[in-house]
Amino acid sequence: MENKKSKYIFIVLSVMCIMMIVLSSVKDGIMNPIRNTIGYVLVPFQKGVNTLGFGIYENLKEHRTLEEVLEENKKLNEKIGILVEQNNRLTQDSGELQRLRELYDLDRDYMQYEKIAARVIAKDSENWFQIFRIDKGSQDGIRVDQNVMANGGLIGIVTDVGLNYATVRSIIDDESRVSAMGIKASDTCIVAGDLTLYEKGRLKITDMKKDASIQDGDRIVTSSISAKFMPGILIGYAVDVKEDEKRLMKDGYLIPAADFNDLSEVLVIKEVKSDSFLDENNGEAALNRTKDKTNSGDTLPETANVAPGANVKSSWAGMEGLTPLSEVVENHSADTADDYIITAKDISDVPSVTIGSAESEDDDGEGNRENRASRTSAHEDDAGDEGASQSSNPGRQEESEEENRETETTSSPETDRRTEQVSQERNNEEETVRETAAEEDSSEELIEENPG
Amino acid sequence: MKKIFKKTSLKKSTKNRLRILSYVISLVLAFLIQTSVMPLIPFLSASPNLLLILTFSIGFIHGSLPGMIYGLGAGLLMDMFYSGAFGFYSLIFIFIGYINGLFNNVYYEEYITLPMIMCVINEFIYHAYIYIFRFLIRLKLDLPYYLMHVVLPAVVFSLLATLILYRFVFTATEKIDR
Prior knowledge:
The complex is a heterodimer.
Chain A: H1 2-26, H2 32-62, H3 66-103, H4 105-111, E1 115-123, E2 131-134, E3 147-150, E4 153-161, E5 166-170, E6 177-182, E7 188-192, H5 195-198, E8 203-209, E9 219-222, E10 234-243, E11 249-256, E12 265-269, H6 273-281, H7 283-294, H8 300-306, H9 316-319, H10 325-330, H11 344-347, H12 350-360, H13 366-383, H14 386-392, H15 394-409, H16 413-427, H17 429-449
Antiparallel strand pairs in A: 1-2, 1-12, 2-5, 3-4, 3-12, 4-5, 6-7, 6-9, 7-8, 8-11, 9-10, 10-11
Helix pairs in contact in A: 8-12, 12-17, 13-15, 13-16, 13-17, 14-15
Chain B: H1 2-8, H2 13-37, H3 50-62, H4 64-81, H5 88-101, H6 113-135, H7 143-177
Helix pairs in contact in B: 2-4, 3-4, 3-5, 3-6, 3-7, 4-5, 5-6, 6-7
């Protein structure tokens, strides 16, 4: 009877647990209220026990015998001598270091992140997982996916946040995978935690391209393409980089910059990578960003004023290449195919280009016009009505006529020079495209005018 | 939960309350020590799973039902600590509490060998559970390494802790009963 009852309860409880597992894995964060309440009660205790334990440990350290301390004193005195000498040398080096650091923007880059200091209050006691808990939570501004650092290196990522605590998964955890890159050549790779390497104090570097130039001793930082990690945080140093067995990729090991055995205080970076994604999805923010990047003085409305014919619409920044088809067809004479795959980033470059092309109509564009003229020359010859076109557009037409004759009669060195000019301008794609667009426009006019 | 506890137990209600209170306190204390104190000790390469030991001890001494309830409490605490799927640890702790309760009828006072053997078996079940559902499904097949470096130290330390904790549960039960 008793056994049967507990059997039923066991089955009920097990089913309940399985349901909870399924529910919480399908819908993330559904158990957060429960976690929060239990956490709210227990974390102060954890904090207390932790400080108590720490205090006792420190106390034990203090109560060493006098002999030990005396001996240590002797050793330390010897060490001071060495250190003074070393210090002198280092101060000389530090001037050079300062200069090099200024050249090295990346260091400053990740110093810019705003950080929150937090204390580690609990750790997983088993060796299966490398996760720990810190004493700051959502009320201190901690959010999921914030990066955690210590001793100048990446430690992990916040996976779970309560009101007054947060759980952090270390990068040495077996489930951790960090998208990274070498600092020298920015070849991307994956830094994966591995339980079998944990005791050696190493992580695994995988998915490195065969021709990647990452070498032993290179600094490995978080990559800018990572979805969750802020770019440029030092992870560690690459060692034993070599081709894998299949000779398709390279892999190696990484010695982390941070010391994971002695974690008591960590720094949490306030910014979350997904924030920047949100910014980019918002058209205006992206526009402002690109403006800042290129530092061009022109704002978008001005762009529209300067080059109305270019058909640059402010909405494009948000649409990112999704120009309605009708619009494309309508403005086809003015817009070349290149125009509608323009991205938000390119827009800030537009004014300079359009201005340039407008000006080049007079001087630089000669080669192109000649090109156009030679193309249209066949029509003109057939029509034989030079006077009509001359009267409609006297100055420019005359010029083109001259050029026509030149191309018809002689292949003079001048034309050679001009064709060279053409090929040079072809290199500068955008300009050429714009100019040819303008030409086509005018050439169409020409053709229309010619028969009349 | 408390209601069931009271029904199954045939003792007086004050004794029950005392027992429940002492178990709740031991549960929380074990959790705090396991997560906040043990990892601080630097020379410990692995730390004993106190919650597991308490769960199977109580299951063994008091039967399936108390074992399950204690297991549920311990599992919920562990689930709260980890950020993965909620209920993962509850399931295994309930299971261990229940299974050990089935051996309640071979329970003899003062007999320590059987609990030690059960400790080893329980540890293996627990670690196998974690290995299968968290590592094997990601095709991490380096079983010998895991056995040597994770499971074995944990089993050894747990055995040492069982010597103390089992004794503690045993004497606590006797004192309350008296």
